[in-house]
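Dear support,

I submitted the protein below through the web form. The confirmation email said the job was done, but the results page showed an empty box. After a refresh the structure appeared. I'm attaching both so you can tell me whether what I see now is the final result or a partial one.
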Amino acid sequence: MSKRKFDDWNARKELENAGWQVQKQDSVKFNSGSETLAHANLKLVVAWYLKQECGYRVDTEVEMDGGDVDVVAWRGDDIILVECETSPTQEVISDKIDRYVKDQPPRECWILNVNNAPANIHECYAWVADEIGL
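What the results page shows now:
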């Protein structure tokens, strides 16, 4: 096993040991609730960007004790999250960070506003790159 695969395996195990239910393979899933097309599109663009441009492993709609996370990404020992929210308030943003980052394996959580994402997929890709900034 290469060092990269070993590090990725360790990051996935760290998530699993903390109660996060991540897939062994990269995965993009729909939310079983009332996910809009705009939300699903943004989630796909985020996952694609993190996988293709940044080299992360990705999983979506990841279950953990505090809820479901839109996008979980890991590369080596670096674990990050992206939540796609429609017009999130400061209270929602603080709550997500408290539940998903504080005392949890991920180092950071970006909250992207679905209403601010361009509808055009290529423009959305550039917007995601600017918002996440990796």
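Response: this is the final, complete result; the empty box was a page-load delay. The chain has a mean pLDDT of 94.
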